[in-house]
Amino acid sequence: MIKRRKTRPVFVGNVKIGDGAPIVVQSMTDTKTHDIEATLNQINRLAKAGCEIIRVAVPREEDALALPEIVKNSPIPVIGDIHFSPRIAMLSLESGIHGIRLNPGNINDEGKIKEILQECKKRNIAVRLGVNSGSLEKRLLDKYGYPSAQALAESALYWSEFFEKVGFTNFKVSIKGSDVLQNVEANKIFAEKTDIPLHVGITEAGPKDRGSIKSAVGLGILFYLGIGDTVRVSLTADPEEEVKVAYQILQSLGLRRKGVEIVSCPTCGRIEVNLPEVVKQVEEKLSGIDKPLKVAIMGCVVNAIGEAKEADIGLACGYKSAILFKNGQPIRKVSEEEMVDELLKEISQMDIK
Predict the structure, then answer these.
(1) Mind listing the domains of the chain with CATH numbers?
(2) Which residues bind [4Fe-4S] cluster (predicted)?
């Protein structure tokens, strides 16, 4: 079992981050925030997919002015993504927003940052303190020559101390880069020195397939080390895919369970049914289930019920047929033509809705 790093609690709206709470899954809308209808429609879809906190871009005043309506109608806490403009940050804080993302390196004015933090404290608004290679302070670039893991961690530690010196503690830290090992090392350095919750992710990970693999590798290492209290998988894809991949990563490590987990064999010469098609059909038919369910689809007698004894239900395939089993016990034999329907029928009778 993974032993998670002990961190202090931070609240974004009613969502607790850190202090032993389940790792919170986040995403970000790709709509123009001032398009209130489109933004709320996407937030609702993401919430249905399992997103627990949503971030929206606020690059312009018209986006900040749209926030009150979005916050009022969002089913999950909303974080405003603020860069460069203290004025837009202060305007956003008047909207009832639950949190803001602030990269101090993009503002680089301690007086202005202090004003924003004081207003956040007054309104009980959480802050995500962001550090990444693109917003690293010049003094650290001069010191290290490039955005190294040490430079990123040093920036995060500096600004964390600054936040605390001005009396603000309701914040989490995000240290991100697109290089997996640099990202892991920077987060490790920071995690060893503080109890501040960490938002983790591999930024600019890339398109869906490549980005999912890159994110799984980097986040898998961090989560195995016990590092990470909230997560966003950053993909050049529909934000709903980010949520889906995040849960798959967490589920593979036993950190969260949501929806269906399919355990299935690789293809090989022993298989005597159309296993890829069976798996595809089952995955599509069960995509709307939110409650945890482990389904095994084993391809031959070698990888049969014994290999899938931890599954809730499954198929152990043979020659043009399969044994339908539940909790490791055979139920009945079904033909290849009926195996998907019979599996789905049995699942429909289980208490998982």
Answers:
(1) 10-252 (3.20.20.20), 260-348 (3.30.413.10)
(2) 265, 268, 300, 307
